[in-house]
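Provenance

Sequences were taken from public entries as deposited. Structures were produced by running a predictor on each sequence independently, with no templates supplied. The record for Deoxyuridine 5'-triphosphate nucleotidohydrolase from Ruania alkalisoli is shown for reference.
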Amino acid sequence: MSDEMPVEVLVQRLDPDLPIPSYARAGDAGLDLLARTACEIAPGARQSVPTGLAIALPAGYAAFVHPRSGLAARHGLTVLNAPGTVDAGYRGEVTVILHNTDPARSVRLDRGDRVAQLVIQRVAVADLVEVTTLPASERGAGGFGSTGGVAAMEGQS
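Predicted structure for Deoxyuridine 5'-triphosphate nucleotidohydrolase:
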């Protein structure tokens, strides 16, 4: 259990018949987001799924919409713009853009199904300072795979 005090987030239910999102277990990072409407997502298609929820985050916070690992593993369903970002100033309905990566099977979602997770985090505001050169670092300009990933192994068979 964290020693930090919970951050107060104002919640408006746009659909009074759906429950307010909650954490499935103590210590979970994500609140479960539910589908406000039923839908079927064809193979390779995407669908915007409303959650019936609007929030007001305090300044210095953002909410991030993450895929549910169970939906990804069982159905190939993911959040297309993962993680989707909900800024502190946004007051509209939280909507999840789902993408069915399965090449052959549609995915059916019913009203009230858990479709994504909402993770609320403190965010820093950057003060960008333009320079002509950047200070050196151990990694330098090494990009994708430069720390031993796929690109570093491409020459191996």
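The chain has a mean pLDDT of 91.
Residues 3 and 27 are 12 Å apart (CA to CA).
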